[in-house]
Specification:
Number of helices: 6
CATH superfamily of the largest domain: ATP-grasp fold, B domain
Number of strands: 14
Bound molecules: guanosine-5'-monophosphate
Distance between the termini: 18 Å
Strand content: 25-35%
CATH architecture of the largest domain: 2-Layer Sandwich
Length: 262
Amino acid sequence: MKKGKKLYEGKAKILYTAPDKGTAIQHFKDDATAFNNQKKATIEGKGILNNRISEHILSSLNNIGIETHLIKRINMREQLIKLVEIIPIEFIIRNIATGSLTKRLGIEEGTVLQKPLLEFCYKSDSLGDPLIAREHIYAFNYCDVTALNFITKQCFRINDFLQGMFKGIGIKLVDFKLEFGKTKNTSTNEKILLADEISPDTCRLWDATSEKKLDKDLFRKDLGNLIQGYQEVARRLNILHEQSNVRPIKFSKPTEVRIKKK
Ligand code: 5GP
């Protein structure tokens, strides 16, 4: 499929126009950033793994009736998606306390929350994605009440589904970030779709037994080889095509990531 002009370049992805109106091509880069762009690296193969993992997760969500922007994966690094207007809020769902929650409120690292916690952050790199309240969302018209109620329900439903999916492969879904967008149809049939990606870049995933990190914290906190962690997630999801001579946990610097074709 022929890519058109670049619409937007973010830290981990690029969006290009696609031949059909209302669609776009989402390209996954190998770039990794953390701490509001202060830490940067290029990690060969990360984009390929995130493309495949996110495709798998968003397709699974589509199958249970959660509408997403994903149309199909078109190659190793790219997906065809529905073009949406992103709501400028990061929806953070937490099951276990870690990261900014522990820093902000002094909650002990690893505390299992009595019920999932939904937080809202305003999407702004220059402001460092600040935490906001529901009232800010209404006051500054980031999203209306009906849309926010719908998204809130979707967030908890997605959490239920993903927690179960990861539990089945020995992984704890600690927390994750979601983004939603509005289709640019006429306002009468405007739809809210789950957008962006769901991958180890946007989730915290811990091995259920050892609590070994399998997500972007490997890069953020220099905890180990990020590709090995992401490959382990893909392997457990049964979407990594393993070579017979490759042992998933042990090898140190893979140069090639092979993804199963559908
Ligand atoms: P925290 O607020 O603890 O830093 O992050 C909570 C969860 O949301 C983590 O799973 C983290 O990966 C995800 N998250 C929050 N903000 C961002 C962001 O700007 N980019 C990405 N990739 N993930 C984010």
